[in-house]
Amino acid sequence: MTTATYISHDQSGNIISVVSGSEGSLIEPEDLHINYTGPEKVTTDFYIKDGEPVQKPDAPSPDHVFNAGTELWEMSLDQGKIQAWTRIKKKREEYEFSIFSSGGYLFQCGSKSQQRIMWATQRAQADSSISIDWTLADNSTHTFTGTEFLEVGSALAAHVTACHAISSGLRVQIEAATTQAELDAIVW
Questions:
Q1: Quick check: 59 and 23 in contact, CB under 8 A?
Q2: pLDDT tens digit sequence for 2-26
Q3: Which of 49, 117, 129, 140 has the highest CB neighbour count under 10 A?
Q4: pLDDT tens digits, residue range 61-98?
């Protein structure tokens, strides 16, 4: 029994289907195809070039689509915009939850630190004459008056607001981009 393999493909060389079976039981496709006799098991991880199946290179990401005509992995502009926005949001979080400055002192501002600063700020609003001992980003400690700590709370709010303002501006640029190169040029 002789085995036949028909590989159907589009004009660009993208494989649409691979059908194998006994030669007498298969009907030759009417669309673009090759009659494959090689030893390799061909799947849609291949494309057709010069009448022969060729293994595609590894995809840069699951969001890329292989273009058999150019033999390159490409991404749609919409998917590129999603990836660019994800990249910007990650950078925003890095900056938002890093450190900020107030009165010449550097403060940690991870999510727990932000909560603690807001609680201390609320205490200072209730009683501006209190003293607050605070561990700074360099692990040194400093004592702040309630009034000084209200400034720390304001500086934290300004820091978070600035991070979101930057990312909002970059999102406008992402939405306006018309090429992947423009998207790649948008950085924090």
A1: no
A2: 788 999 999 999 999 999 888 878 8
A3: 117
A4: 888 889 998 899 988 899 999 999 999 999 999 999 99
